[in-house]
Amino acid sequence: MMKGREWLKRYWVFLSLLAINVLIGILWPQIGRQSWTLTKSNLVEMISVIPPIFILLGLLDIWVDRATMVKYTGKDSGVKGMLISFLLGSAAAGPLYAAFPVAAVMLGKGSSVFNVLLFIGAWSTTKIPLLTFEATSMGIRFMITRLVLSVIGITVIAFAAEKAVPVEEKIS
Amino acid sequence: MFTYILYGCAAAGLAVSFSKDRGKTVKALKKAWKSFENILPQFLTVLVLIGLILSILDSETISLLLGTKSGIWGLLGAALLGSITLIPGFVAFPLAAALLKNGAGYMQIAAFISTLMMVGIVTIPMEIETFGKRMTLFRNGAAFLFSIVVALVMGVIL
Q1: In chain B, what are the domain boundaries?
Q2: Are the Cβ atoms of A121 and B118 closer than 8 angstroms?
Q3: Distance, in angstroms, between A166 CA and closest chain B CA?
Q4: Which residues, numbered 25 to 84 in chain B, qualify as contacts with chain A under a Cβ-Cβ cut-off of 8 Å?
Q5: Closest Cα to residue B154, out of A150, A90, A135?
Q6: Could you list the pLDDT tens digit for every one of the 172 residues in chain A?
Q7: Looking at the complex, does the CB of residue B1 fall below 8 Å from at least one CB of chain A?
C-alpha cells in the first residue's frame, strides 16, 4: 500500500469535492441528495463495465511486443506498414502523452514520419478498449460514425503534415 | 448487451493467455489493476463532479450552453474545452453521455470528444520534443479544424 501522504496527494481533489458535496447537502438538502444519487448510480454503472476493459488492456500490453513491431513500419512498408501503425496505436493503452516516447523510438529506428503520425492519430482516437467504452456509453452509432470520420481525418492529417513540413524540421 | 460481449472477450483472452503463459497472465492482470488504480482518483473526481454539475445545472441550462440551439458558439466552446482539458476517455465518455441525456447537442459533444482526444494544448511541450515545433503546431491545428468538421458532420448524420 501507498503511504498516507502520497494517497492524500492523489485523492485530495476528490476528497475536497466530496466535502463540497456534503456542504451543499447541508445548505441545500435537495441538490445535495440529488447529486449523491446521481454519483452513486454513475459509479455502479461504471464499475460494472470497467473490469473487462482493463483486463483486455493488461493482456494487450503484455502480449503486444512493441520493439518487434517497430521494424515493420519503415518507409517502404507500404500499405502493410500503414495498417500496422494504425493497429499498433489502436491496441495501445495510456494517455496520448505516453505515445510520444514510443513515437520517438519509432522515428529513431527508421519508421516513416507518415506512419508515426498515423500511429499517434490512432493512439489518440481509435484505441480499441476506448472504442468499446465509447460504444457502451455513447451508443454504437455515435462510435462508428466518429471512428469512420477519424480514420479518414487521421490519414489526411498525417499525409498533409508529412508533405507540408520539411524533413529537417521534423525532428528537433 | 455490449457489456456482455466485453466480459466474454476478457474471459476468452484470459483463458488463452493463461494456457500459454501463467506468469505473463498474472503480469497482465497486475498491469490491468495498476492502470485502473492510476486513473481512479480522476475517475472518482469526475463522477462526483458530474453529480454536482447535473444537480446544480438543470437540463435547461445545459441545453442553453451546449444544446442543439447553442450553434457555432456552443460548438467552438466545446471544442476549446476539449483542447485544454486532459481527461482520460474512460472518464470523458460518462460525462459526455450524461450531458447528452440532459439536453446537450450531438454536434457540441462530438466536438468536445474529438478535440479532447486529438488536440493537447497542455502536452504541446512534450510533443515538440518528439516532432519539432512546426510539425506539432501543424498537427494540433489540423486536428482542431478536423474536429470541427467531424462535429458538423455528426450533427447532420445523428
Answers
A1: 1-56, 58-158
A2: yes
A3: 9
A4: 25, 27-33, 35-36, 41, 43-45, 47-52, 54-56
A5: A150
A6: 557 888 888 899 899 999 999 999 999 998 888 888 888 887 887 788 778 878 877 887 777 665 665 667 777 778 888 998 888 888 766 667 778 877 887 787 778 889 999 999 998 888 887 888 889 888 999 999 999 999 999 999 999 998 888 654 445 4
A7: no
DSSP A28: S
CA distance A117 to B137: 13
Do A147 and A139 touch, CB atoms closer than 8 A?
Answer: no
Return the ∠ at Cα A49 (arms to A45 and A55), rounded to 5°. Answer: 150
Domain boundaries, chain A: 4-49, 64-170
What cell does B83 get? 483542447
Among B14, B41, B110, beta carbon nearest to A11:
B41
Residue A4: what residue type?
A: G
